[in-house]
């Protein structure tokens, strides 16, 4: 019987990246902590499921990033785009540790509504 290894992922979602004088920051949105993730079962699709558990559709996801180490996010973000890069993030988190995940969302095109106004003449 093997020993399970668990980590936790802290999701930053619903916000956006902005460049400031101090570097890159993630503003807005919310933070959700997902605990007790078995590293033997982690996959890219599992990450997308976690995004859905945070209240967002996987179709809204443009990119997923994780932050390497406890430094700022300006130069230490790595993109997760498939199972291979998902497994790569595990090298940066130890048993019982946590990792910060950031979601960049698709920008949806605005929906335009065409309305037709008909003027009527009123006679008093």
TrEMBL record:
**Pfam families noted in UniProt:** PB1-like
- InterPro entries xrefs: PB1-like_dom_pln
Q: Which domain of life is it from?
A: Eukaryota
All copies of domain PB1-like, residue ranges: 7-104
What is the protein named? PB1-like domain-containing protein
Q: Which organism is it from?
A: Nelumbo nucifera (Sacred lotus)
């Amino acid at each position: 019987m093997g020993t399970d290894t668990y980590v936790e992922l802290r999701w930053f979602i619903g916000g956006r990246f902005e460049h400031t004088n101090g570097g890159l920051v993630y503003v807005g949105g919310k933070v959700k902590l997902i605990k007790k993730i078995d590293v033997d079962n982690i996959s890219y699709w599992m990450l997308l499921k976690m995004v859905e558990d945070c209240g967002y559709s996987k179709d809204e996801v443009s990119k997923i990033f994780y932050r390497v180490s406890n430094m700022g996010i300006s130069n230490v973000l790595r993109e997760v785009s498939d199972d291979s890069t998902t497994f790569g993030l595990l090298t940066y988190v130890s048993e019982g540790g946590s990792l910060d995940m950031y979601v960049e969302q698709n920008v949806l095109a605005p929906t335009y509504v065409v309305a037709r106004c008909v003027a009527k003449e009123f006679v008093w």
